[in-house]
Design a protein that fits this description.
By secondary structure, the protein is mainly alpha-helical. The protein folds into six domains: 3-31 and 41-53, no CATH class; 65-200 and 208-226, Serine Threonine Protein Phosphatase 5, Tetratricopeptide repeat, CATH 1.25.40; 289-408, no CATH class; 416-503; 507-585, Methane Monooxygenase Hydroxylase, Chain G, domain 1, CATH 1.20.58; 595-702. It has helices at residues 3-28, 45-53, 57-60, 65-73, 78-95, 98-111, 116-130, 137-157, 162-178, 182-189, 207-223, 232-252, 257-275, 295-312, 316-326, 330-337, 345-358, 362-367, 372-401, 404-414, 417-434, 438-458, 466-478, 480-485, 497-506, 508-525, 529-549, 559-579, 590-598, 601-619, 623-646, 656-675, 687-702; strands at 280-281, 289-290. Strands 1-2 form a two-stranded antiparallel ribbon. A hairpin with a 7-residue loop joins strand 1 and strand 2. Helix 13 runs antiparallel to helix 20 (404-414) and helix 23 (466-478) crosses helix 25 (497-506). This is IRE (Iron responsive element)-like protein. The chain crosses the membrane at residues 12-32. Residues 712-722 have a biased composition (Low complexity). Keywords: Membrane, Transmembrane, Transmembrane helix.
C-alpha cells in the first residue's frame, strides 16, 4: 500500500469519525438551561425527548450532589456496583448486621436514585423482614417506621412514581394495622408525644387514614398522567378499602355510634361511587375499558332485549327449556332445583352438569322463531343482548379479583345502626370477659347474637355469604371461652344457630358423614351389620373432624347438627345391641354425649347427692352417718335409672365418664349396704346396670389400656363383649 493510499484511508476514517461525532452530538448533547434565553440550549434529540416525557433528573425528583459524584467515580459501572451492594445488603440482613445494612442501602440508592425497585424492595425489607428480627415491639416499630422513611426518601428522587406513594400507604395501613402487634403499634402511632417523629408536628391521625391519604396522592399523580407500574384494578381498590379497614379498627377498639356509621358510609361511598365508577382497563381486547358498577345495568339491558325476543314468539323460551329439562336425569333435576347454598358436594357437580345442559342462548331462541321477519329482528336483538352479557361477564371477572361484591355489601350492612349495635354488644361482652365478669359477658354475648339475628332478618341475603357466615361462626367459636368458664352450653334458642347450621352443611366432613349414615341404614336393611358398623364409625370420624373445625359444636351451638350426631349414635347403639358389643373405649363422639349428660337434671342431682353422701361418710362412719348417706344414695339411684332411660346407650358405654360415675354410685351404695349387713333390695333400680355394665368397666380398669384406635376408614375397632 502506497503512502498516498494510506493518506486517503486516514482521511476517510477522519470523515467517518466526524460524522459519527456529529450524529452523537445531535442525539446526545445535554440540555444547557440558562436564565438568559439567548444562551440556553435545549440539547440534542434525546435530551428534548426526555424533557418532553418528563424523564430528566430534575423532573423525576430532587438531585443529590454526593450521589452524582459517586456515579462518576464508578466510571460507568453503576449497575455492577449496585448489584454488589444488593448482595452485601442481603448478607448483612442474614447476619443481622444492621449498621452495615443501613450503610449498604444508603450507598445503593445514591448510585441509582431513580431505580424504583431498589426503594420498593428495600423499604419492604426494612418494615416487614428486618423489623421482625427484634423481640421488643418498640424496636420492631422503629424499623417499620425506618422502612417507611426509606420509601419517603425514595419519593424525593422519584416524585412521579405512584407505586412508591402506594407502598408508603400500604405499610402505614397493613404493617401497623394488621401485624400481630397491631394493638401496640397503633398505640405508638397515635402517641401525642410522637417519639418516632411520624407526624412532623401535626396532630396524630389513624394509621389507616394516613395510608389512605398516600394512596389518594398516588391516584392524583396517575390522573395527571404519571405512569402506574402495577395493576390499576388492584391499585385503585386500596384507598376505599383502607377507609373500611379504619372503620373495622375503631370498632375493635370500642368506638361505635355515629362515628362508626359515618366511617362505614364513607367507605361505601368511596368504594362504589368513586372506585366503582372509575374507568379501568379490563384486560380484554373486545371491551378494553370498563366500570365495575355497570354489571347490573348491563344485565338489566340484556334482560330487556331478551324480553323483546320473547314477545316475538311468546312461550318459545319456556318450551325450549322444558325440552332440555326432560333430558336431565332425576338426580340432576333434584340438584338443579336445590338452592346453591344447600347443595352437597355431589349435588354441586350434578347442578353444574345440569346448568350446562340447560344453557340456552338468545341466539338459539331467535333461530327457532318461525316467522322469517321476526327471526331476523330477533337475531339482531340476540346479538346486542349477547354483547351486553359478554361485557357484564368481563366486569364480573374484574369484580371477582377485588372481591367487589363482598366489600360493597359488607359496607352496606355494617353502616346500619343494628349492625353497629351488634358490634358494640360483642365488644362489651369481650371487655366483661377480660374483666373476669363471665356472667355479664355471657348475657351480653347472647344479646349481641339476638342483635345479629335482627341484622340478618333485615338483610336476609347475607346469611348466604360465605365470608359473613365464617365471620360470625368464628366470633361464636371465640365466645365459647365464656361459656366454658361458666360450665355452660349454648341455649337451645341460640339466635345464631341457623348461621352455624349453614356453615356446617357446607363442610365436606358433614356431607360425607351423612352419606355414611345413609349407607349404614341401607346396610342394616340388608342385614349386613358389620358393614353398617363400619359406615357409622367412618361417619363418627367425620363428625369429630367437624367439631374440630366448628368448635362451638362442642358446646351444642347448633342443636340440629347435634341431633344428626345423636341419631347416628342411636343407630350405632342399635347395631351394638344386635352384635352384643359395646362402644369402643376411645369413642370419638363421647364428649358430645358427655356435655349433654352434664346438663341433664338427672346427672346434676346424681352428682349432688353422691357428693353429699361421700362428704357425710368422710366425716365419720357411724350408724347415724350411714343412715344419712344411704338416704342420699337412694335419692340418687332413681335419677341414675332415669338417666339410663333417657340415654340408653350409656349402658353400652357410649360415654365412659358418665357410665363410670354411675358405676361409682352403684359400687359405693353396695359397699354401704355391705357395711350394715344388707343386700341389694329386690326393686334395686340399677340392677341390670349392676350386673352387666359394672363388671365390664371393672375389667377394663383392671387391665392395662390397649392401644385402640377408632377407625377412620371402613374398619371397626375391637371392644369388650357384654
Amino acid at each position: 500500500m502506497t503512502s498516498r493510499q494510506q493518506f486517503l484511508r486516514k482521511i476517510v476514517y477522519l470523515v467517518i469519525m466526524a460524522v459519527l461525532l456529529g450524529v452523537l452530538a445531535y442525539l446526545g448533547t445535554p440540555a444547557a438551561p440558562s436564565r438568559d434565553p439567548q444562551r440556553s440550549s435545549p440539547g440534542g434529540v434525546l435530551a428534548q425527548v426526555r424533557e418532553k416525557e418528563g424523564l430528566t433528573p430534575t423532573q423525576l425528583g430532587q438531585l443529590d450532589p454526593s450521589g452524582e459524584a459517586i456515579k462518576l467515580a464508578t466510571l460507568g459501572m453503576r449497575g455492577v456496583a449496585v448489584h454488589i451492594l444488593w448482595m452485601k445488603a442481603e448478607d448483612y440482613k442474614r447476619r443481622k448486621d444492621w449498621t452495615n445494612l443501613s450503610a449498604a442501602l444508603e450507598q445503593m440508592v445514591k448510585l441509582e436514585p431513580h431505580f424504583v425497585t431498589v426503594w420498593r424492595h428495600q423499604g419492604w425489607n426494612l418494615s416487614f423482614n428486618v423489623s421482625v428480627e427484634f423481640d421488643d415491639y418498640r424496636e420492631r416499630f422503629r424499623w417499620v417506621i425506618r422502612g417507611i422513611k426509606f420509601l419517603q426518601e425514595g419519593i424525593r428522587y422519584n416524585e412521579r412514581e405512584p407505586v412508591l406513594y402506594g407502598d408508603v400507604g400500604w405499610t402505614y395501613g397493613w404493617k401497623i394495622g394488621m401485624a400481630d402487634e397491631s394493638k401496640q403499634f397503633r398505640r405508638l402511632f397515635m402517641d401525642p408525644a410522637d417519639p418516632y417523629e411520624i407526624h412532623q408536628g401535626r396532630p396524630p391521625r389513624d394509621n389507616w387514614l394516613v395510608g389512605k391519604d398516600w394512596y389518594r396522592e398516588a391516584e392524583r399523580l396517575t390522573d395527571q398522567g404519571a405512569i402506574l407500574r402495577t395493576t390499576p384494578l388492584i391499585f385503585y381498590s386500596h384507598r376505599p378499602k383502607f377507609q373500611m379497614n379504619y372503620a373495622e379498627a375503631i370498632e375493635k377498639e370500642g368506638t361505635f355510634g355515629e362515628t362508626a356509621m359515618d366511617a362505614w358510609k364513607t367507605g361505601w361511598h368511596e368504594f362504589v361511587n368513586e372506585f366503582g365508577h372509575r374507568e379501568l382497563p379490563s384486560g380484554y381486547e373486545d371491551f378494553p375499558i370498563i366500570r365495575l358498577y355497570e354489571r347490573e345495568l348491563l344485565l338489566q339491558q340484556a334482560r330487556e332485549l331478551a324480553q323483546q325476543i320473547d314477545e316475538l314468539e311468546p312461550g318459545l323460551r319456556e318450551q325450549l327449556l322444558a325440552e332440555r329439562r326432560k333430558e336431565l336425569t332425576p338426580e340432576e333435576r333434584e340438584a338443579y332445583d336445590t338452592p346453591p347454598y344447600d347443595r352437597t358436594a355431589r349435588q354441586a357437580d350434578l347442578a353444574l352438569s345440569a346448568e350446562i345442559k340447560m344453557r340456552l342462548t338468545h341466539e338459539q331462541v331467535a333461530r327457532r322463531i318461525k316467522d322469517p321477519a321476526k327471526r331476523k329482528k330477533a337475531l339482531e336483538l340476540a346479538r346486542k343482548a349477547m354483547e351486553l352479557e359478554r361485557r357484564a361477564q368481563i366486569v364480573e371477572h374484574n369484580r371477582t379479583i377485588v372481591n367487589y361484591d363482598y366489600w360493597k355489601r359488607h359496607a352496606e350492612v355494617e353502616q346500619q345502626p343494628e349492625a353497629v349495635a351488634a358490634r358494640e354488644a360483642m365488644f362489651q361482652s369481650l371487655e366483661a370477659y377480660h374483666n373476669n365478669d363471665h356472667i355479664t359477658a355471657m348475657e351480653i354475648f347472647l344479646e349481641a347474637a339476638r342483635r345479629w339475628k335482627k341484622v340478618i332478618e333485615k338483610n336476609p341475603d347475607i346469611q348466604y355469604d360465605d365470608a359473613f357466615v365464617s365471620d360470625l361462626s368464628e366470633i361464636t367459636d371465640r365466645y365459647m371461652r365464656i361459656l366454658d368458664q361458666l360450665d355452660e352450653v349454648f341455649p337451645e334458642d341460640f339466635a345464631l344457630q341457623d348461621i352455624i347450621r349453614r356453615r356446617v352443611k357446607r363442610r365436606p366432613e358433614y356431607q360425607i358423614a351423612m352419606e355414611k349414615v345413609a349407607a349404614a341404614q341401607k346396610a342394616i336393611r340388608a342385614g349386613d351389620l358389620g358393614q353398617a358398623r363400619s359406615n357409622l364409625e367412618e361417619a363418627f370420624s367425620r363428625f369429630h373432624e367437624l367439631t374440630e373445625l366448628v368448635k362451638s359444636l362442642k358446646l351444642l351451638s347448633d342443636r340440629q347438627t347435634i341431633n344428626d350426631m345423636m341419631n347416628a349414635i342411636d343407630l350405632y347403639d342399635a347395631v351394638m345391641v344386635k352384635l352384643g358389643d359395646v362402644f369402643p373405649r376411645n369413642f370419638v363422639l363421647a364428649d358430645i354425649i358427655r356435655i349433654q349428660c352434664l346438663h341433664t337434671p338427672e346427672l346434676v342431682a346424681i352428682k349432688r347427692h353422691a357428693a353429699m353422701a361421700n362428704s357425710i361418710l368422710t366425716a365419720g362412719v357411724n350408724p347415724a352417718n350411714l343412715a344419712k348417706a344411704r338416704a342420699e344414695f337412694e335419692q340418687a339411684l332413681p335419677q341414675a335409672a332415669a338417666l339410663l332411660k333417657k340415654v340408653p346407650h350409656l349402658a353400652r358405654l357410649s360415654d365412659r365418664r358418665t357410665a363410670t360415675e354411675l358405676a361409682e354410685l352403684d359400687i359405693n351404695y353396695n359397699r354401704l349396704l355391705s357395711t350394715i349387713g344388707e343386700s341389694l333390695p329386690a326393686d334395686y333400680p340399677l340392677r341390670e346396670f349392676h350386673e352387666k355394665v359394672v363388671p365390664i368397666l371393672e375389667k377394663e380398669y383392671s387391665e392395662p389400656a390397649q392401644p385402640e384406635t377408632q377407625p377412620s376408614s371402613a374398619t371397626s375397632g375391637s371392644s369388650s363383649k357384654t
